[in-house]
Write a structure and sequence with these properties.
- By secondary structure, this protein is α+β, with helices and mostly antiparallel strands.
- The protein folds into 2 domains: 190 residues, Fructose-1,6-Bisphosphatase, Chain A, domain 1 (2-Layer Sandwich); 120 residues, 3-Layer(aba) Sandwich (D-Maltodextrin-Binding Protein, domain 2).
- The protein is 29% helix and 24% strand.
- The chain is built from 9 helices and 15 strands.
- Strands 4-3-5-6-7-8-9-10 form an 8-stranded mixed beta sheet, sandwiched between helices. The protein has a 5-stranded mixed beta sheet with strand order 12-11-13-15-14, with helices on both faces. Strands 1-2 form a two-stranded antiparallel sheet.
- Strand 1 and strand 2 form a beta hairpin.
- The chain is globular and about 60 Å long.
- The model has no long low-confidence stretch (mean pLDDT 94).
- The structure holds 1,6-di-O-phosphono-beta-D-fructofuranose and magnesium ion (MG) (2 copies).
- 1,6-di-O-phosphono-beta-D-fructofuranose binds next to strand 5.
Length: 327
């Protein structure tokens, strides 16, 4: 059997692609890898340990925090803080960004935004969930605490982004702007191996993913597009897991479109621009796909707030273009 490439070997092999100081990217990714393994271990025994159910608090989104949301947030933050290259983090679970104060971290050149646990409504029912991350160079001066402007950068400024999917197997998929690669965790060795090299998404597909329970609240153009997907002459498959990472990952591999439009109840939709939409848009585009709010490229949106939401349409290029043509 051909020798499998570990994630660590792959990062070193591809270090020249990362325009900044050698070792910084591997350091950044290795801390995310470490935290993902710790979180994965808890998820795998979710029914046995006191990690399921509500944490009894609400986050800034007004959503009830799950224990695993809080646990994952702590683990990723601790791993990134201990690194010294990251001067601050922002996450779905924290009202405000966190500027690290240690001497090394003050000189850290990167900020990281995370959705520590994506698909929270699926935690207790053993359905795939994930973690999403987005990495930027800081804009503020090294040596001083991170500032809000370090986080409010357009998606086009991302230097790396990716996600971890905790499913039947655990995978980490990321890009530094030079293609997309997927790694599968061998739980017995605790090592990620390259399993999906140079991922490309089909330019067209047959899968559409939308919470149809909201369809009456969506604009006519979205209803028209969904009707097209239900055309008996060219039937598509409706697939909706309710975990963005899992729906995105399936559609990335098979070809498809994920839609979370604005509704009469949620004028800007549900998903968060900075730590859900931008990082997956980065991956989608690197794999040949497309991501828009229906009218503009997601990564061109100028962020104004840390937790701002946006309507979201992402997936195979032709399908997203067909959707846009309906709007
Ligand atoms: O239940 P709905 O309205 O269909 O929303 C499901 C969507 O909300 C999310 O759960 C939001 O993410 P979080 O779980 O990280 O809050 C997405 O993963 C998912 O695609
Ligand atoms: Mg999420
Ligand atoms: Mg979340």
């Amino acid at each position: 059997m051909a020798k499998l490439t570990t994630l660590e070997e792959f990062i070193v092999d591809r270090q020249q692609e990362f325009p900044y100081a050698s070792g910084e990217l591997s350091g950044l990714l290795s801390s995310i890898v470490l935290a993902s393994k710790v979180v994965n271990r808890e998820i795998n025994k979710a029914g046995l340990v006191d990690i399921t159910g509500s944490a009894g608090e609400e986050n800034v989104q007004g959503e009830e925090q799950q224990k695993l949301d809080v646990y994952a947030n702590e683990k990723f933050q601790a791993a990134l803080e201990s690194l010294g290259e990251v001067c601050g983090v922002a996450s779905e679970e924290d009202d405000d960004f966190v500027a690290f104060k240690s001497k090394e971290a003050l000189n850290g050149k990167y900020v990281v935004l995370t959705d520590p646990l994506d698909g929270s409504s699926n935690i207790d029912v053993n359905v795939s969930i994930g973690t999403i991350f987005s990495i930027y160079r800081r804009q503020s001066e090294p040596g001083k605490p991170a500032e809000l402007r370090d986080f409010l950068q357009k998606g086009t400024e991302q230097i790396a982004a990716g996600y971890v999917i905790y499913g039947s197997s655990t995978m980490l998929v990321y890009s530094t702007g030079h293609g997309v690669n997927g790694f599968t965790l061998d739980p017995s060795l605790g090592t990620y191996y390259l399993s999906h090299p140079d991922l490309k998404t089909p330019s067209n597909g047959k899968i559409y993913s939308i919470n149809e329970g909201n369809i009456q609240l969506c604009e006519k153009g979205v209803q028209d597009y969904v009707e097209k997907c239900q055309d008996e002459k060219k039937p598509h498959k409706a697939r909706y897991i309710g975990s963005l990472v899992a729906d995105f990952h399936r559609n990335l591999l098979k070809g498809g479109i994920y839609l979370y439009p604005a509704t009469t109840k949620a004028k800007n939709g549900k998903l968060r621009l900075l730590y859900e939409c931008n990082p997956l848009a980065f991956i989608a585009e690197q794999a040949g796909g497309r991501a828009t709010d229906g009218h503009q490229r997601i990564m061109e949106i100028e962020p104004k707030e840390l937790h701002q939401r946006t309507p979201y349409f992402i997936g195979s290029e032709q399908m997203v273009k067909d959707l846009e043509a309906c709007l």
